[in-house]
Amino acid sequence: MEEARALETLLAAVAQRDRRAFRVLFDTAGPKLMGLALRICREQALAEDAVQEAFVEIWRKAAGFDPARGSAAGWMAVIARNRAIDLVRRRGRAPGWGGGGEGEDPLAGLIDPFARPDGGAEAMALSECLGRLEPRPRELVVLAYVEGLSREELSARYDAPVNTIKTWLRRGLAALKTCLDG
Amino acid sequence: MEEREYIAAERALGHEPREREGAEEARLREDWERRLAPLLDAPEAAPSPGLFARIEAALEPEASGGAEIVPLRRQVRLWRAVSGLALAAAAALALWIAVPAERAGERYVAVVTADEGGEAGLIIQFDTGTGLATVIPVTAPPSGNSYEMWTIPEGRTQPVSLGLLPRGAALRPGFTAAEGQIFAISLEPEGGSPTGSPTQPLYHGTLVRVD
Questions:
Q1: Which of B41, B89, B119, B182 sits in a 20 to 30 Å window from B74, CA-based?
Q2: Bridge-partner residues for B160, per DSSP?
Q3: CB pairs under 8 A between A and B
């Protein structure tokens, strides 16, 4: 918990325009966000642009972070994910590696709750609940969120109509929420 | 699940536009982002050395230098609010013990808190790649006193001084830190402990590895 508190304290200092704290925050969280951006952008230069945009947004929005509604690490990760996906789309490309053939579980290797002392319980619950979904909805939720694939891209990848993708996704999301809230 | 919950989840996935999203809708969407955030855990990758300079250049220009004491005072109040306990001293100062260089290593953070309560006394960030530590104290010592920094290395029982804060202290390259290592700050007569042991221990904390 001390680690989570350190990030929260740093963010609180950043909200007060403390550039030293901002530097420490970058040194602390930067490599994680860089890894995340690289997974979406698949290219070092683009991923760095995404991390740059993410940290500028973190600087700007730090005062809006509410520790009562989730971890600082998660809050920053969501910002980096959205910036990376936006950036890839602005370049007219599809995000993600585009690989991973039919039948390959995109969840495998993505989430290791035991490797995370911070947010470990949340990660474990999500992993557990994703594991209970039917394979197809699970793959779609993970690909859509982690790689940022659109319904159209998922439709092409799974050779299924867009509306079917939407229905599968909704089924997965509803089951996920029931499991997580239960 | 209600339709607005579906829409919120689809906004989190990026499948529905966020423009014209109301406050309540944004809250529901953020709840979904929080639920799914553990999926974003990725293996670390090193940013290029110049990236932070680029980020800083992209920030809006703000007053610094002489104006610094004001935001730092606000920061003390903020830390007080964060910790929920009053801090004894009102003045604040920030200090670089050493400027971190651009080398990847394991990173550790310790939030050093008061022995008598939970308030944050200072934050120590340590990078094993550079062997350098960054220390941000929240309060200044009373006049006529100095803060002294200590650690208890593995296999030892007595604290070892790491020097005075803010003057003359240094965690030099080659200094090793280990997870769980204890750091402490004591209040000393000006010039440091006369005995070689902490006179009045104030704060302590342990290093945790930051992934």
A1: B182
A2: B151
A3: 202
The two tokens of residue B14 are: 């990026």
B134, two tokens: 């960054």
Residue A141 tokens, joined: 């939720």
Which residues of chain B make contact with A55, given a CB cutoff of 8 A?
Answer: 55
B42's tokens: 């990725």
Are residues A126 and B13, on separate chains, in Cβ contact within 8 Å? Answer: no
Phi–psi pair at B201, nearest 5 degrees: -60, 135
All domains of chain A in start order, with CATH = 2-90 (1.10.1740.10), 113-181 (1.10.10.10)
Question: Is B14:A84 a contact under the CB 8 Å cutoff?
Answer: no
Considering only the beta carbons, identify the residue of A12, A31, A141 that sits closest to B44.
A31
B136: β partners = B123
- Both tokens of A34, joined, read 């860089």
Indicate the pLDDT class of residue B174, thresholds 50, 70 and 90.
Answer: very low
ipTM value, please give it: 0.85
A24 and B136 within 8 Å at the Cβ level: the answer is yes
Quote the pTM value.
0.60
Q: What is the average pLDDT value for chain A, to the nearest integer?
A: 83
Comparing CA positions, the residue from A14, A170, A115, A16 lying closest to residue B69 is: A16
Query: Where along chain B do its domains lie?
Result: 3-40, 65-210
- Specify whether the CB–CB gap between B75 and A115 falls below 8 A: no
Per-residue pLDDT of chain A (182 residues), as tens digits, is 456 777 888 888 888 778 888 988 998 899 999 999 998 888 899 999 999 999 998 988 888 888 888 889 999 999 999 999 989 888 877 776 544 444 444 454 454 434 444 456 777 888 889 888 888 998 899 889 988 889 999 999 899 999 999 999 999 999 999 999 87
Residue of B nearest to A13 (CA): B75
Task: State whether B44 and A32 contact (CB < 8 Å).
Answer: yes
